[in-house]
Write a structure and sequence with these properties.
Strand content: 15-25%
Number of strands: 3
Number of helices: 4
Order of helices and strands: HEHHEEH
Largest sheet: 3 strands, antiparallel
Structural class: alpha+beta
Strand order of the largest sheet: 1-3-2
Helix content: 55-70%
Distance between the termini: 18 Å
Length: 71
């Protein structure tokens, strides 16, 4: 995991499902930059798309990571 992914795990400890907006606020970056991170992390398998709706798109951690970190 890279440094941002490791930091984001702290947000997943509070919430199981997060949005692009949550990621932007967490890192203090623009929604567009947060979306770019999400696209990259989806491709790598770090995140899984929970709700594909354009305005309310949400993500959760890869199930294997969830099991390793939270069980």
């Amino acid at each position: 995991l890279d440094a941002k992914q490791q930091a984001l795990i702290a947000l997943f400890e509070k919430r199981k499902i997060i949005t692009t907006k949550d990621i932007g606020l967490f890192f203090g970056i623009s929604p567009r930059a947060a979306h770019a991170l999400c696209v990259k992390w989806l491709a790598s398998g770090f995140l899984v798309l929970k709700d594909p709706a354009k305005k309310s798109r949400s993500y959760e951690l890869n199930l294997d990571l969830q099991n390793k970190l939270f069980d």
